[in-house]
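Incident review: delayed structure delivery

Summary: a single-chain prediction request sat in the queue longer than the usual turnaround. Root cause was a stuck worker, restarted by the on-call engineer. No data loss occurred. The affected request and its eventual output are reproduced below so the record is complete for anyone auditing the incident later.

Affected input:
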Amino acid sequence: MLFYTVMKPLVQVALRVFFRRIEVRHPERLRLPGPLLLAGNHPNTLMDPLLSAVHRREPIAFLAKSTFFKNPVSRAILESGNSIPIYRAQDVAPGSPPPTPAQQAARNEATFGRCYDYLGQGGTIMIFPEGTSVSERRLRPLKTGAARIALGAEARHDFKLGLHVVPVAVNYFDPARFRSDVLLNVAPPIAVAEFAALYAQSPEAAAEALTARIREALERRLVVSHDAADDALVLQIERTFGSHLNPDDDPDTLYDNFRLSQQLLLALSWFQEHHPEQLATVRQLLHDYREALHQHHLSDEAIDDERRGSVAGLLNLVLGVPVWLYGVVNNYLPYILPSMVARRATKDVEFVAPIMLVVGMITFPLAYALQAAAVQHWLHNGWLTAGYLLSLPLTGFYALGYYTQLAERLRRLRARRLFRQQPAVGQQLLAQRAAIVQALETARKAFMGKA
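Output delivered after worker restart:
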């Protein structure tokens, strides 16, 4: 518990740095009084529980694979971090005999008993019913363990415990990228006592029914794709023409982007069934346009805004060079090391962000401490050292923003040069873009009027 108390503030800061925006829809549902069981989807391993934990004041207990408890160091961290081991048949070490059904049942009963005790004391437990973590925009079949724990805890108290299940749908907009966005879409609480009568008739049927309720709540609040190719097409449309399809997008909320993704996937399914030829046309138009942009090292924004660009923005780029250089020099090593370690450590997308987060929580404080110690050693001035230390994260964030603005400015300059030197090519790009916008607008009207 000490580890949870000490680390939570550090994790809060690390998550705020790692993600550009963290939006919680209906945060009050995460702050309901216990006992509470949070049931979430699991696309991004360690990130999923951390994002829920930092938005709830009371400690959360997590169910973790028993294999994590075999190492004495990780076991000490997990136990002090309020984790409960769960034993799965597939987690047996290579060469070891699998547990007998009786042994597996006894292990599960021990885990369930600890959960019952924790919930009975008014605690909060988070479970991921999918069982495994895969970075996909879909919801895999849910296991009934979460529902069985909830029902078992209530049954111990004659269904008067007041336990609620809160489904937590986590939507990542680019799960492995630093400074991306994430939306926690929290569902209304499900009162477990509602299933008391069904549980009395059949505990198995009650567990299935509660699991179905959890799945329905999660699916309504997730971007769910059923095909990798379709998901790739939707992502391309979102990132290339999202501003056109969502002109009323509120820059202060991610929910509009989430709704756009949901609607695009629904529309895609509808067109596959009713107008596959129109969908094939859009696919080809988009493919050709993106290939042309890539060939000329441009972006859709550069083409759309090729005559824009404020004087203030240009002045910021010119005058900001010294600050940018200062930020890069002082932050490059702790910034680049987490991504280097993540790339070497894993090829699985769902592990990249957690590794970067954990390594970054080490590299940045360590680098800042060493740099501040060196400055203090040379200057022997506490105020100057403090000012230098404060400048490190501020100029680091400035350098990130500066680089983004510089890249956008360079793409616009390339677009201007293309329109000036090869006007026919520029006009062709504009014509391709206009054809796609028209096709998408026609498709939108057809989909909206399908009823």
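Verification: Residues 382-421 form the longest helix (40 residues).
Action items: add queue-age alerting; document worker restart procedure.
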